[in-house]
# Entry
Amino acid sequence: MNRRTLLRTLTAASAMAPLAFGSNRLTAAMVSMADTDGEDFWLTVQQAYDVDRSIVNLNNGGVAPSPRTVMSAFHRYTEQANGAPAYELWRHQEPHVEHVRDDLAMMFGASSEEIAITRNASEALESVQLGLRLERGDEVVISDQDYPRMLTTWEQRARRDGIVIKKVKFETPVKDPADVVRTYEQAITARTKVLHCSHVVFLTGQILPVKDLCDLARKRGLFSIVDGAHAFNHIATSATDVGCDAYGTSLHKWTSGPIGTGMLYVRKDRIKEIWPLMAAPESMDDNIRKFEEIGTHSAGMHNALSEAVQFQRAIGIERKSARLRQLHRVWIDQMAAYDNVSFLTDLSNDRNQCGVRLVSIMDMDHGKLSEWLLSRHHIFTVAIGHDQFKGLRVTPNVYTTINEMERFARAMKIVAEDPGVVG
Ligand SMILES: Cc1ncc(COP(=O)(O)O)c(C=O)c1O
# Structure
């Protein structure tokens, strides 16, 4: 495929994207593109980024870079705003947020009246966690594999308001997702008001059965909060697929938005129940925009999200997920031969995981391993520690090359064969 054909392909994919994102249906044409795209397609994607190739960045789960189009939109808005700030920002730039809201709503298969743009996933999720009306003794079910800041938020509410946290533990690797649902179900009592779960577990990359968990919450009359920081634009997902009351995500991870962007979805009929973190007038009680009353801020940050949305649409979510799985296969297949190497997700079923993986080497200090990879091989990863397991988290992105994954595989084989090399 030559460059001109590729550009046509990206444009065609972009035109079809509402189908892919809005309803999670893919046209046959896109499926066949996803199956047949070769390295030429991904070369165009790789070259859309200005990343530092002197390191192999395999920690895109923390925060990911934006493509050049996003960065230039952000810079353009920022420079324009600086020319006559109050005039530019409030007359021209801020109203564009409605366009961004429409873009994100279409991607998440929601109404624009259910989408707020936040500065990150923490702000989105804490708006709901701290804004829900709960009484002393009310219970919240969450797991010990949820994000620490989200746990801290509930713990602060427990200290301040006397709510009770029920923290479940599930077996890792997850063998049967139905076991996870049963574990949450067992923790629900007559006092439970909220079920909070992660869509993709940040530690292991495990994709949880959020639809079943939200169905359970609805059946038991609970408010469901899904932490989608690692799911949106990583795996195919929509408000209807998840069926939650509230969903919070970062847009600077898998959406490749500017660093400092996030999204909050709240089902229209539940908006009124939540106090915003920063005050809004009573007339906005059932208006999703009440979660954006944060005072003066950079409009360029949220406006540049339109470019990120275009970029993600052009790739297409099914093709993106398939590519991330392919990048992982480059090294995981080579690790399978080593008895001292294990994975914290069930590799026999792709539906369990996508672009985030946790690998564990027996008796290894994974912090030291991460440092060794960086200092000796210029490969950036992150060590993960949890009560039940530990390992090295590996998250490539669409700009990652097969060659970079092979470089990582070579380094990991050295360690698997001789763990002492790490020191
Ligand atoms: C599962 C999960 N939730 C929430 C967050 C917080 O995201 P942010 O830094 O965008 O606030 C993270 C960040 O890594 C995460 O992994």
About this structure: Residues 3-22 form the longest helix (20 residues). The two ends are 46 Å apart (CA to CA). The pocket of pyridoxal-5'-phosphate is lined by residues 120-122, 147, 149-150, 198, 202, 227, 229-230, 250, 262 (CB under 6 Å).
